[in-house]
Amino acid sequence: MQGIVLQLTRIGFLLLLWFFVWAVLRTLRHDVYAATGQRPVPRYERKGRRSGGGGAARPKGAARYLVVTHGALANTRITLGTQPVLIGRAADSTLVLTDDYASERHARISRRGDDWYVEDLGSTNGTYLDRGKVTTAVKVPLATPVRIGKTVIELRP
């Protein structure tokens, strides 16, 4: 009887050890993708969509939308043009935030050639690109989070 209990204890300990290893690997994978700004692309998103012409030609991978991913305005999408996007609590901002941690004129995202740059406009709480504080105009890669207060936005193709 004691032999069976000992064997079941060993098997239980081995299962617990494998569960721990699996949890650690899962956490590391999540942290690596969060730090690099990349994520694994699900199979249903891998198929390329073809647009039917019209409009100005954009380079492959150029940003077309500004999407709010977290915050009170989550899932809001703004189509990008040639004009800069002003972000803040002011009523005349392109993206008006109802966030207590955002300034009246918090940040501006502007186009320079084919790239988009974010710059902080002297806000109290700062603007963050991924995890770094923005002090000068900084190029914003696609799908990289830009945090303004409790609001997170990303550029999307």
TrEMBL record:
Organism for this UniProt entry: Williamsia herbipolensis
One Pfam entry name: FHA
Name assigned to this protein: FHA domain-containing protein
Domain of life, per lineage: Bacteria
Matching Gene3D superfamilies: 2.60.200.20
Domain annotation FHA: ranges: 85-134
Assigned keywords, A-Z: Phosphoprotein
Matches recorded under InterPro entries: FHA_dom, SMAD_FHA_dom_sf
Keyword flag Cell wall biogenesis/degradation: no
SMART domains: FHA
Taxon lineage: Bacteria, Bacillati, Actinomycetota, Actinomycetes, Mycobacteriales
